[in-house]
Amino acid sequence: NEKEDIAQEELDSIALDIPKKAEAALSDLKTLEAEIKEEYLDLIILVETEDIAG
After folding, report:
1. Distance between CA atoms of 27 and 24, rounded to whole angstroms?
2. DSSP class of 1
3. pTM here?
4. Using CA atoms, how far apart are residues 30 and 32, in angstroms rounded to an integer?
5. Per-residue pLDDT of the chain (54 residues; tens, 9 = 90+)
6. How far is CA 9 from CA 2, 21, 24, 30, 41, in A?
């Protein structure tokens, strides 16, 4: 059946796309995590510097 074949092709395409999207999302999260850690370290340094100076 042609409609079933088309539907199956669409499902296969979606199924193949999911891991790519998941990997991209994971990469984005890792980048965000690194940025947050960097900001956090900057904040710790700032607080410690103020404690020493204060």
Report:
1. 5
2. -
3. 0.64
4. 5
5. 999 999 999 999 999 999 999 999 999 999 999 999 999 999 999 998 888 887
6. 11, 18, 23, 32, 49
